[in-house]
Amino acid sequence: MVSVAILGAAGGIGQPLSLLLKLNTNITKLHLYDIVNVPGVAADISHVATNSEVKSFLSDKQLAEAVTDIDLAIIPAGVPRKPGMTRDDLFKINAGIVKGLVEAIAENSPKAIIAVISNPVNSTVPIAAEVLKAKGVYDPKRLFGVTTLDVVRASRFVRDIRPEVDAATLRVPVIGGHSGTTIVPLLSLASAKLELSSKEIEELTHRIQFGGDEVVAAKNGAGSATLSMAYAGARFADSVIRAMKGETVVEPTFIPLAADPEGAKQIRELGAGQLDYFAVPVELGPQGVKAIVQLDGADKVTDFERKAVSVAAEALSTNINTGVNFAKSA
Ligand code: NAD
Ligand code: LMR
Questions:
Q1: Strands 3-7 and 174-176
Q2: What is the mean pLDDT of the chain?
């Protein structure tokens, strides 16, 4: 029995994510929550011939019920970017949305695993943590910022210049955060030997860091990545659920490093320093984070990548403080 709530289920990400999770046979109950349009989305998806039960929850009045008895809450609620905006420009609106939703989860399913998609992830995850702390139910092992799209892009963009690579199985550890230069792909530690020139590494790194902008520009005012994000979100949710059921699964994701202080030492030495949050490859287990996976061959990390980590760490520090200060003062 696995119960999943999607908060923001009627949105550009929420709808395809709900559909993909309806196809996940490990899920028995799917709660779809939004402040608009969700009854139609839930009625539509509920006709798909899999065994899970789909329920619709509309507006604040039904929020508590939507997040009661939930194992996993996924949050894609909030506004997306338009051309010319940074993810940080979304903070003003999305910070309050995430805070309110996490409060409801804390009160009604205090042991739920929470996966935050809403941007800016570098700040919304610290907000979620502060809310959980204030409610007395914080467990750093159960809180995740979803950065799977960066990992997905890394695999796919490598294939664009190396067609012999299988995009579906190539794994590139992507660490740091989820915005621009805070996204750091470690191409030197890819699961296949890539033989990339310095120019290719620089160009690929830049493309992975700013991949979101390509979609924002192409959508030309109609939002940001939704379909690839739904794919990435469904993959992350599936990994969390398989781990709940006892499988060993590894996913890079933005977590509180307090989830595994011992395991965090390597990434701190690599440049995360004293930061409280960082995206790292994580071994998932039944309770969320089982361990931070040690980078295999960290000595192979190039000077270019180390520099990128230090640039990321500086920006992340500001993003994290912004989230913490908001939650503490709101
Ligand atoms: P969207 O506008 O299409 O959908 C957002 C949905 O959230 C809407 O249905 C809206 O009604 C709902 N919503 C707003 N306030 C709510 C509340 N208080 N409770 C519940 N639902 C609420 O936007 P989208 O394209 O689906 O993007 C959603 C968020 O995901 C954005 O912040 C975007 O930047 C982010 N995003 C993150 C990643 C990532 O990799 N983490 C990738 C893509 C997009
Ligand atoms: C992405 O990486 O596609 C998302 O964070 C959405 C965005 O604003 O680019």
A1: unpaired
A2: 97
